[in-house]
Amino acid sequence: MIFCFIGAGSETFKRKMRLKEIQRTAHQAWSPAEHHPVYLALGTSAQQLDASFNTTAALEIFEVDFSDPSLEMQLRGSLPTTNRLHSIVWVNFGMGADGTGGRLVGGSENGTVTVYNPEVIMNSGAEAVVGQSDKHTGPIRALDFNPFQSNLLASGANDSEIYIWDLNNFSSPMTPGTKTQPAEDISVVSWNRQVQHILASANPSGKAVVWDLRKNEPIIKISDHSNRMHCSGMLWHPDVATQLVLASEDDRLPVIQMWDLRFATSPLKVLENHTRGILSISWSQADSELLLSSAKDNRILCWNPNTGEVIYELPTTNQWCFDVQWCPRNPALLSAASFDGKITVYSVMGGSLKSQQQSTADKISSSFDTMDPFGTGQVLPPLQVPQPTVQDTIVPPLKKPPKWVRRPVGASFAFGGKLITFENPKLPPVQSPQPVPRQVFVSQVTTETEFLQRSRELQAALQSGSFNNYCQAKIQNAKSDAEQDIWKFLLVNFEDEARIKFLRLLGFSKDELDKKISKCLGKSFQHNGHGVDAKDLAEKMQRLSTERTEEATDARTSGSVSPADFFTQTPKENSNFQIPVSCARRCWLGNFEGAVDLCLNDGRYAEAILLSISGGEELLKKTQQKYLSRQKNSISMLISSVVTQNWRDIVQSCELDNWKEALAALLTYAHPEDFARLCDTLGGRLEHERTEKRCLQACLCYICSGNIEKLVECWASHRDSSSPLDLEDLVEKVMMLRKSIERLRNSEVAVQSPILVEKLTCYAGILAAEGSLTTAMTYLPENSDQPAIMMLRERLFHAQGEAVGQQPLNSFNRVNASATKPAAPAQTPAPKAQVMSQYQPSGPSQMAAQQQPPMPSIFTPQPAPTNTRPGLPPSSHAVPPSAYPSFREAFLPPTSCSGSRFNADHLYSPSSSQPGAPVPMYPGALHNQGPAPPMASGLYAPPGSGYPQGGPGAPAAKPFMAPAVAPPPIGPQEGWNDPPTVRGGPRKKKVPDNYTPPAPITAPVMGFPVEAPQPHDHAQVPPGAPREPSVQLLQQLPAERVEQKEIPAEHMVLKSTFDSLVQRCQLAARDPQTKRKLDDAAKRLGFLYDKLREQSLSHNILNGLHEISRCVASQNYQRGLEVHTQVVSSSNFSEISAFMPILKVVMTIANKLGV
Amino acid sequence: MKQERWSVVEVSVINTVDTSHEDMIHDAQMDYYGTRLATCSSDRTVKIFDVRNGGQILVADLRGHEGPVWQVAWAHPMFGNILASCSYDRKVIIWKEENGSWDKMYEYTGHESSVNSVCWGPYDFGLILACGSSDGAISLLTFTGDQQWDVKKISNAHTIGCNAVSWAPAVVPGSLIDQPSGQKPNYVKRFVSGGCDNLVKLWKEEDGQWKEDQKLEAHSDWVRDVGWAPSIGLPTSTIASCSQDGRVFIWTCDDPAGNTWTAKLLHKFNDVVWHVSWSITGNILAVSGGDNKVTLWKESMDGQWACISDVSKGQGAVSTITDTQQSEQ
Lengths: 1155, 329
Hints:
The structure holds 2 protein chains of 2 kinds. By secondary structure, chain A is an alpha+beta fold. In chain A, the strands form 9 sheets. Chain A has a 4-stranded antiparallel beta sheet, with no helix packed on it. In chain A, strands 2-3-4-5 form a 4-stranded antiparallel beta sheet. In chain A, helix 31 crosses helix 33 and helix 33 runs antiparallel to helix 34 (1117-1130).
């Protein structure tokens, strides 16, 4: 039975079977289960003396502190008593809410029942005795309290006396019925554990009586006919109401009988193992399969009374143990009181049993106990001298684990929001024959329902490409105006004419503006969309001059009623339009500078500027400066800004309350390559205010500029985006903005900015936690080498339960923990170091991982030919060709262009010179046409960030507001942007100077002398970087124009073929729209020719162009279009965006026209 | 201030695995990816099921324990497919899959009583297993390569028995920023244990020796389980403990030194609470109690813990709860 082995180790503090021990000859009572901490009350035993012959009696309370490894128990209180005890119980009654207190009840040898307050004992108070009765006539050996009503206490004494005490009314006990006859000692009373009004009593003769207190009479008597049962103990089954056990003290029948009242003729079971009479039993309330018994054979056994099997023996005693008690609170513990004067606390969970370090008292005791001269009058046990053991004895725990360690239920989380649960049905004590299903449930836990719903909607929109609908729905459901604004702006990015719509969103209506202009000019303007001829121009100039005065007056009027924070005054001029002869002469002679000076001196600014345009960029600039230097009012600031393109001043110095106006001005005037930066600057200022309102306004700026990173930063700075829904709020906007930019660029926008990576990773983490593994994967930033992201990716990949046999993806190298192969050359003292280094992802495997086909990515563009949803262009950048009129023609003076077209006949042809003309558009991604791709040149943009600098508001595919109609009204109460005020009169409208300043191209370059030789380099300047104009640069530009190269001979065929194609089409075209397209095409092909001159096109593209050219020559447009598609799809879009779209348009038209 | 947010927590059973265990199941743990399920039972066996795509294919039936198996724990997959199990038979067995078959990799018999809990440390620490036993000791088994396991033992960690161990996430003390790559991070190994002395104890390795770092007292009965929450990037450490006394406490520590822990009572249940488990993201706590009930708990914005779901009978549950956040007023 005892499982022993030797030499388990040299540790000093082995867990001991024997946990606590104290020298006392006493009856014991554990504090109730609810009581904390655990106390043990000891009342000096009657009829026993210890070795000191001490005849005093006391009630002592010890704290059993199991966190203290020593055998000591701390004495918490002591009360001298007049009587020694035969029995003691600790009752819940009167227990405080904090789980302390209760009542101790002692049954003494002289028949007194005393009720103590343990709290008072421990506090050394005087009134510890709260009740006392000497109703009983003899020693009280039996005490038990009702488990249901803790105020009810049963006691039994000699002469068949049984009393039921109500602790609330202690003076008058009841009886359970008439005394049984013949009168006998009551050795034990016990309340039923299931039915509260059932009590049993037993006497040494072996008879047990069951009382029904409601009937106040005995209802059954149990007696075995051997007459040898000498009942020392009786206990009800903890779980089964009808069963009880009786223990016999008789050495001739040292058994425990188990009775069932339903078959009360003979015992159900007889537990036989003890060799001498049983002194005490205790049934575990925590596990009914554990019944303790101590007997005069010195053994303490633990039975499974349901099977009759001895499941454990405490190998501990060499003495009779007259009282064993399970600890109610800690079910693994029991205390045993032995006749050798020890109270010992044991555990049934096994451990080592060390040889005892016996105390002096112990030695004295042991020297006497062998003699036991003052014994209990009972049969002396055989002498047993303890064998000193030198080794630890390892005592195993109970053979079968007790119920309280058998975990019946569990729930554990697993990756992907899975919850693993199991439970075990509560079995009846008797095993049911039917097998119990042993199931484990895997559940999906989703806690963020709304988040998931919104995530699904977003995902659906992203996959289907129905961005407009998505944004529309967001606008409709927006909870706040600010939210609605943001979604409106985001939506605009997916629409044509984004800039105009942005303006409208800002409260500036182009139509109103047109009306106003018309009113001012007294004439309705026709939009005809292309350049004006000389006659038209002349007419306008004429009108300008005649209407000037009137206009100025009007402007003053309106200026006075407007808030006009920016500009309130109208410049006044003396208008005199007689051109001096000397001036005219100089004009004819080409001496523009002289002519301009003359005009300026005469105050004829309009003429001066007109003339200076012909005189070249430098002259124009000088003239402008002179003009502006003479205008000292605030309107000139605007004009100055417009003319010199110095929008930085505006965005840096405007009142933030006027952010709308500033943004509107940018939307109207700023050049694409500047636009994003200017928007960002404005946004930065707004953001800097750190108020929520400003931050939202800043977000709008960033949406206009398409700066995802800034949007995320700004959003994150003023909004908590830690909760899933807040994060969803952000991600929705980011994804939409990103999609719109990708649509513009027709290429992926990589996630590079750390904050965005962080947010998306967080987002993916939440999705994963909610079980949306596939979706989570799509948001996880690709190409990241952050270990956390790689691990999540790897985990997501495997978690999705992919088809077996698929190449697994490891973001870590496996550490060889093989049992057969050495993983480390020697005993590695710090294995973790090795592990860490090995955990670094190997480059190749990661590379391979990224090329894994099964890795889905929503960032993958979806050029799929099948992707033909209605209303959405198959190719995201495929804005209708008509939206691509030449930006250059519209806005840029020839000076800004490559020189070849400087003298082109459309020098004065800007369609925009007609106010309200059909809105000229930027060419597709004009700003990308430079030799350096925008990403590379985008110093302002975060390194490597993928979005175009222009941003959706500026760039190419978006229509751009004609400068002539530019002055956007500030709602109805305009001041500064009333046409007259802004433009200084119709006269200026004849002149494209105010919107075709020389600066736009030079400005970005100026900031970058290093890159100066590349006039097309649209490098941007960090917002804070100084950008002094570089005079040298300006001077270089004309020179460079002169040096303009010819188209290389081998590529001339392209020009001739395409030009001829356009001409053929123009001849054949009938409807005005097509004609317009073709007009535009003629101009836009110039970009191609520029590139050919610069020899900046890659080999691949050139080959493609030649192939297209051959197709065109053979009139095989279909094939040409196919080649076109190939070229576009295989090239850097920024390199070809300026001309490839129009080439496609032309070929399509040609195909249709059959030319 | 009163703020209400309605949120619907759904717990839907997506797979019911019939384990065919012949006696009580005591633990069920999914592997790192959530594709394999390990179960253990009083029938002395450990079983592994492939549960991908809603399936339940028995992969292994591991026999080797001579008593009820209490817990199983998966090692991080970077070490291979390794599972540890602990049993009433006083043994810890580490199983490993080699070439598709599972075998004993190591058997540890250094405990004198039931081994109640096993838990693998964060992968950053290497292959290290903590084992808590009814003999009151905690063993730390570290794989040192070449079939060697280094054993350290904390004797008398919990008088009359240790019921649970749980590792702290690998966090470099005093720093939330990742160490420069190439440098060996200076991790401090810590774990928490709970025992029959009603205590929650924190242990820390210093100079290769395990030392008691903190002793957290709040429970009035056996601590049945402890769970150190995964790090969510915040400097706060969080531990959940549950007890025979029906109480679940959430312990938090904000100071980098890890010295000041405060306890917040999550709930007092009417029955023993056997098990606590944090979600992978550390924001939900699953509590399983003696009444066969599983409840899910979440901390609201104002730091109050609210029951968000009551999963009973394995049938799954849909609970609509009000996440009411209100102050004293």
